[in-house]
Amino acid sequence: YPPERIRNFSIIAHVDHGKSTLADRLLELTGTIKRGHGQPQYLDKLQVERERGITVKAQTATMFHKHKFGFPDASDIQDPPNFLLNLIDTPGHVDFSYEVSRSLAACQGALLVVDAAQGVQAQTVANFYLAFECNLSIIPVINKIDQPTADPDRVKTQLKSLFDLDPNDALLTSAKTGQGLEQILPAVIERLPSPPGKCDSPLRMLLLDSYYDEYKGVICHVAVVDGALRKGDKIASVATGQNYEVLDVGIMHPELTPTGVLFTGQVGYVVSGMRTTKEARVGDTLYHSKSVVVPLPGFKPAKHMVFSGLYPADGSDFDALNHAIERLTCNDASVSAAKESSTALGMGFRCGFLGLLHMDVFHQRLEQEYGARIISTIPTVPYIFEYSDGSKIQVQNPASLASNPGKRVTACWEPSVIATIIIPSEYVGPVITLCSERRGEQLEYSFIDNQRVLMKYRLPLREIIVDFYNELKSITSGYATFDYEDSEYQKSDLVKLDILLNAQPVDAMATIVHNLKAQRIGRELVEKLKKFIDRQMFEITIQAAIGSKIIARESISAMRKNVLAKCYGGDVTRKKKLLEKQKEGKKRMKRVGSVDIPQEAFHELLKVS
Ligand code: GTP
């Protein structure tokens, strides 16, 4: 297939507007997968993706299609397919917009899918602009037209007013009933450009993604921009300077299908004896060893926006957790993990995530795929602190912000985001109140049609990582949609809030908060802890403090818990049983200093904003 016969495209949409269903239908239409293959959402491969109905990691599938130019011609029915189409799936959730831009870099066009009843939503806007920045040609697809509340005309008006897309270009489809789907592939072929690479130039390919396979080793997804790649070729990496031999090369059809060669414009996989995915730098340029090439532009590195400590729920499990994290970060380079130790929790990891959902998904994968039981500390964002000696540090762990009498904090900054919120106009009031409580600054307010309002806010990242989206949904009866992009660091008035148990600070519970909110957050944390810590043999005081100033205090009175008290009579087996039971109960506790803290207490602390 010469580049003129290739189209690389993506489907972009707001969550739940039908992207994965539509992708499945296209794979069926082209015979890439069988109809009713019993595994809906073919491209969502991870267990968490299927369970939560979200796409986390982008997947690619190659399809072959017979396109009839003009009128269908009965004589060419026997002819082989004349077009090769690569569908590059993208995640829909805001945390993964980094993955979206990566996938779009390998495309020339995108289907912008919008739910005919819900209309344009916050992620439609965000994804449209990501595609627009990549200079992609866009085909608007208004999906779910089978729904009784579908209003395609309203969606067309929104597409025109927000993105200046011609309403006549919109395709009307139902991925459920199949209506209108036959127009999609012809539109992809006729309206999207072919890949621009040069067949006779030296090989340059972009490394899109990689994962580790038990049997084959590291498998790289690549887009061949110029030239061709064959099995047996010697290739080199611009990023690492390493050389490899191509052991296997092929397409995802949709399973790995060896072809022995990939030509200009194709997207496929390469196995080249890389030992770990750390060697496979996403965005790297691979080329024929000995040739001289200009590297491709690549990608901006993933930015970690949320950090938290991960510790084994049971101290002895550190090695198991270490192993699980190593394996998992091997396949998800967007998570960073560095060993750290906490006085309270022992050895663990400081992990960086793209966002809160990303963190949740990682926790879930650790538990589901590796059976790890973990305690996670209050998530934090990367703050910047400046000291009196002029030095500046990025603080990813609040506990590391030790009070050093020789060094005074002179200024601090926190990361902010630009949030896009779309809501029916009757909810404007409560949303404005919520955003100002969260220290937001309104940047834009406009109507996208006669019922819906689009607002843009600058918000501190810290304010949206905990519970913002849930609250936004609840005050708008579920109608609000929300997306955000990173923005600059802003000067702020931040303080470190310590939690003390029996006058001992618990490093794993320290958090950095805005000065104006410290009092309330301190009180909430202390109350939460009181609720979840059981009475013990001695009195426990729980305090929140800023420096040496105590801002909240609770205490739990002592209780004598002698499980053997009831066992008069001296029945040894019964005594043993009770002691065993008591030990069981203790397993789910974490002893901090002298106080046993149940795992749930740590989970509850995560919810205080
Ligand atoms: P993410 O993977 O999270 O981005 O979601 P998505 O955009 O891929 O949405 P998905 O394909 O999972 O569809 C969401 C829901 O809408 C599912 O329950 C689908 O069955 C349903 N759905 C998809 N297309 C249609 C359609 O044309 N009509 C109707 N009525 N329902 C549809």
From TrEMBL:
PROSITE patterns: G_TR_1, G_TR_2
Amino acids binding GTP: 13-20, 89-93, 143-146
Enzyme Commission number(s) of this protein: 3.6.5.n1
Keyword line: GTP-binding, Hydrolase, Membrane, Mitochondrion, Mitochondrion inner membrane, Nucleotide-binding, Protein biosynthesis
Subcellular location: Mitochondrion inner membrane
SUPFAM superfamilies named in the record: EF-G C-terminal domain-like (SSF54980), P-loop containing nucleoside triphosphate hydrolases (SSF52540), Translation proteins (SSF50447)
Catalytic activity entry: GTP + H2O = GDP + phosphate + H(+)
Enzyme class label: hydrolase
GO molecular function, a single term: GTPase activity
InterPro entries, alphabetized: EF-4, EFG_III/V, EFG_V-like, EFTu-like_2, G_TR_CS, LepA_C_sf, LepA_CTD, LepA_IV
Signal peptide: none
Swiss-Prot/TrEMBL GO biological process terms: positive regulation of translation; translation
Annotated membrane topology: Peripheral membrane protein
This protein's GO CC annotations: mitochondrial inner membrane; mitochondrial matrix
Boundaries of every Tr-type G domain copy: 4-196
Free-text function comment from the UniProt entry: Promotes mitochondrial protein synthesis. May act as a fidelity factor of the translation reaction, by catalyzing a one-codon backward translocation of tRNAs on improperly translocated ribosomes. Binds to mitochondrial ribosomes in a GTP-dependent manner.
Family, similarity comment: Belongs to the TRAFAC class translation factor GTPase superfamily. Classic translation factor GTPase family. LepA subfamily.
HAMAP family: LepA
UniProt cross-references to PANTHER family, sorted A to Z: TRANSLATION FACTOR GUF1, MITOCHONDRIAL, TRANSLATION FACTOR GUF1-RELATED
Name assigned to this protein: Translation factor GUF1 homolog, mitochondrial
Organism: Phoenix dactylifera (Date palm)
Classification of source organism: Eukaryota, Viridiplantae, Streptophyta, Embryophyta, Tracheophyta
